[in-house]
Amino acid sequence: MKNIYVFKILVSLLYIFFTILPLEGQTRKSPQSEGAYVFSVAPVFGFLYGHAEELVYKKADSDTLLSQLIWDIKPLFLWGFSADIYRRYPMEKPGFFMNLTTQFSFPTNTGTMEDRDWQAAEDRLSHFSSHDNYTNWATLMDLSAGISVPVISRLVFKFHAGFDYMYFNWTAQNGYAQYGKELSPGVFSPWNENIPKVYQSGTVISYIQYWFILTPGFSLYIPYRFFSVNLDFQISPLIICLDQDNHPLRNPPLQFNDYMFWGLFLEPTGEFTLSFHERISLSAYVSYRLIKGPRGLTMIKNMANNITVRDSNKAGAAYSALGAGLSLKIQIR
Q1: What topology does CATH give the domain 35-331?
Q2: How far apart are CA 239 and CA 279, in angstroms?
Q3: Given CA atoms 123, 129, 130, 135 in this order, what sign does their dihedral have?
């Protein structure tokens, strides 16, 4: 009996939600003095929580790893701004929209950097090291544009295409290494936790990673009088990743430059916006960004004699992070 009452209450709330509450743009008609489009700006504050990976494969046509470096992003706080152009009343008819969001990091410790090598017999682990990971700087930029089409009551479909750019600059410092014993050139004994730790101070590795991604996607936008919900999904294979890895403590010091292409980019995003005033609204968003699969070649530079050699297509990279944040949107006109 109690369950029946609960069910009736839920049905009543859904009825109010979908039939009685006024839609955005139905509470009033826009006067002639109002333009069809709105331009707004917003400060943005958020964070990332996840990691990036620097990968080396044993062979160009194999998925067996030779080396894996995991750079923590746990967490990385961001600040920035966004700018939007969109139809004032998207439920009235199709329209155009555009968004530019740029965010920057605060220099901080973001966890650890772990480095693993598989150079023992039977592809077993031979090397392990762990160091503090410092994010010196990060820049993220997302640019998208598309069309919005009202399809049914309280629902707008959006199709868009965009460009995503990410830049990270990390430094691994002050940690330790455990290396298996070299049995023959390039072959080491298996790693175990009893291997003595060799402690290291200062900068051990520095790493820069660039991402350039073309991102088609679509959104479902549900507008109401005082709030709106936007559910967005992006997927793309159009990925370019460039990175630079510096090992100043090696003998000789080495610099690795990787050029990687293609892969899988995936990002779902949910955003909830609450309007306090006709021109002011607060938005909260949550997203998850996954990138995997880009492969490419490596250029290895000997920093002692400036000689560079080319390695085959063994380089790889990956990225996985949860993002969340707030923005205060202010309509300029």
Answers
A1: Lipocalin (2.40.128)
A2: 37
A3: negative
User: Cβ of 85: how many Cβ atoms within 10 Å?
Assistant: 15
Q: Is 180 helix (H, G, I), strand (E, B) or coil?
A: coil
Nearest partner of 160 among 177, 143, 175, 136, judged by Cα = 143
The 3-state secondary structure of 185-198, one letter per residue? CCEECCCCCCCCCE
CA 240 to chain centre: 14
* Average pLDDT taken over every residue of the chain: 90
| Distance separating the N- and C-terminal Cα atoms of the chain | 54
Residue 7's pLDDT is 55
- Total-model pTM: 0.89
Q: How many angstroms separate the CA atoms of 301 and 174, rounded?
A: 25
Detail the DSSP E strand segments found in 59-154: 65-87, 95-105, 108-117, 127-152
| CA gap 140, 322 in Å, rounded | 14
Q: Tell me the two tokens of residue 209.
A: 């990673």
Listed in sequence order, the residues at least 6 apart from 245 whose beta carbon sits closer than 8 Å to its beta carbon are: 54, 69, 205, 206, 207, 255, 256, 257, 258
**Which pair of tokens denotes residue 311?**
């390695």
- pLDDT, one tens digit per residue, over 198-226 is 999 999 999 999 999 999 999 999 988 78
At 134, list the tokens: 């410092």
